[in-house]
Amino acid sequence: MESSQEIFEKYQIDEEVGFALPNPLEELPAPYDEWISIAKNLPELIDKNELREKVDQLKIHSTDALKDHKSQRLAHLALGYITMAYVWNQGDGDVRKVLPKNIAVPYCELSEKLGLPPILVYADCVLANWKKKDPNGPMTYENMDILFWFPGGDCSKGFFLVSLLVEIAAASAIKVIPDLFKAVKNEDQNALQKALCYIASCLRQAHKEFEQINDYVDPSTFFNVLRIYLSGWKGNSQLPEGLKYEGFWNTPQEFAGGSAAQSSIFQCFDVLLGIQQSSGEESASRFLQEMRKYMPPAHQEFLLSLESGPSVREFVLSKGDPKLRADYNECVKAMVSLRNYHLQIVAKYIVIPSNKQENKGTGGTSVMTFLKSVRGTTENFLLRDN
Ligand code: HEM
Q1: Would the annotation count 207 as a binding residue?
Q2: Is 28 exposed, middle or buried (0-12, 13-18, 19+ CB in 10 A)?
Q3: Is the peptide bond before 106 cis (omega within 30 degrees of 0)?
Q4: Is the pLDDT of residue 385 over 80?
Q5: Whose CA is nearest to atom 6 of ligand 1?
Q6: Which residues bind heme b (predicted)?
Q7: Which CATH class is domain 4-380?
Q8: 233-269: per-residue pLDDT in tens?
Q9: Ligand 1 mean position to 364 CA, how many Å?
Q10: Average pLDDT over residues 21-30
Q11: Which of 26, 200, 245, 269 could cross-link 104 (Cys pair, CB 3.0–4.6 Å)?
Q12: Residue 14 forms beta bridges with which residues?
């Protein structure tokens, strides 16, 4: 395994912010500034019912002049917001099933360049949608903001920024991955214990960050507003065949909506700790595998590279040392605890609000079954005392 510096470069991981995009751009030069200005004013345009008209009037721009990665990511983020807004508009069931070519063509071209699907993904709305208010200040909720908003006021900021802070806290552990593999290779138990303790502490910090969701995200606004704009068109009865990307594909395409299930960080620690989600329910494992296609290709490759690394779990098992086993278990416990907490949050933000609606059937039950299965599989990987 390479040094952490080499890993960071090869797999587009940042030392400070992990899988998040470091210091994302906020502006694009003409003619792309047109996209930015629509995306920036989305809530207002939707409210005045002018959004679709604005999009229909857009000129078609080639994406050739968008050369560097950060410009491409910003354009993908802005076009993603505009696309979600165009399809769902006021979130009242009046949906569009065709994305006009003036936006569909550049969006699909750009998506191909980035290796991302043409829908708003976690890598857009969380990983590339942030800035520090005071550039010299800390990475805290108070000193940060998002770049683009959906209707629903501060709900977008709360949901996207808290997700980002969870992500960044957990990502501090990436830098010890080479130490972890080196320790296994050299059978250096002390070094391994040190790396495992560090990983567990980062995961516990991620849990603390997660708790902030209660302060910043209102369940009813999340459920009734933001969730609509994040919905995709895969298995969605409102767009049963998917979305037609005019001028790019002849047939409608299905893509799943944006969710933190597209984050690489949980999958990264599952792999590192040898927690095989594939040993759990097949549908859960298939879903997590599918979510990898919504991650930036460099991050997908990183997960694959970890899968071919030495097995930390096998090493811990082979040693039969209770102290080492306890340190390994602390990491697995931290993953279980994160997933437990996540289940509580999903109950609060999806299941309870959906029960309040007359028209139930929002899939709350199947979501809980899936998440419980993933949590259960994680728990099964705790090493029991012999
Ligand atoms: C209001 C807050 C949240 C809600 C309502 C929520 C909801 C969901 C739902 C419904 C799923 C099932 C898959 C899907 O439908 O896409 C899911 C999966 C997932 N979410 Fe969240 N989520 C929230 C916050 C977060 C945060 C902050 C993170 C961490 C950054 C996160 C990480 C995950 C992961 C990793 C999965 C995949 C399952 C797993 O690996 O355990 N979620 N979430």
Answers
A1: no
A2: buried
A3: no
A4: no
A5: 346
A6: 342
A7: mainly alpha
A8: 999 999 999 999 999 999 999 999 999 999 999 999 9
A9: 13
A10: 97
A11: 245
A12: 18
Q: Which residues, at least 6 apart from 104, have a Cβ–Cβ distance to it below 8 Å?
A: 118, 245, 246, 247, 248
This prediction's pTM: 0.96
Q: Does residue 362 surpass a pLDDT of 90? A: no
How far apart CA 373 and CA 384 sit, in angstroms, is: 20
Residue 52 pLDDT exceeds 60: yes
Q: Does any ligand 1 atom lie closer than 6 A to the CB of residue 345?
A: yes
Give the closest residue to 13 by CA, choosing from 170, 208, 199, 185.
170
For residue range 163-210, what is the model confidence (pLDDT) as tens digits? 999 999 999 999 999 999 999 999 999 999 999 999 999 999 999 999
- Ligand 1 center from residue 263 Cα (angstroms): 9
Would the pLDDT of 135 be above 70? yes
Residue 353's pLDDT is 93
Residue to probe by mutation, ligand 1, list 234, 342, 343, 372, most atoms within 8 Å of CB: 342
For residue 385, give the 3-state DSSP assignment: coil
Number of DSSP helices (H) and strands (E) in the chain, helices first: 20, 4
At residue 232, what are phi and psi to the nearest 5 degrees? -100, -170
Ligand 1 pocket residue status of 229, Cβ below 6 Å: no
* The two three-digit tokens of residue 85, written as one number: 């807004």
CA of 261 from ligand 1 middle (Å) equals 5
Q: Is 243 in the pocket of ligand 1 (CB under 6 A)?
A: no
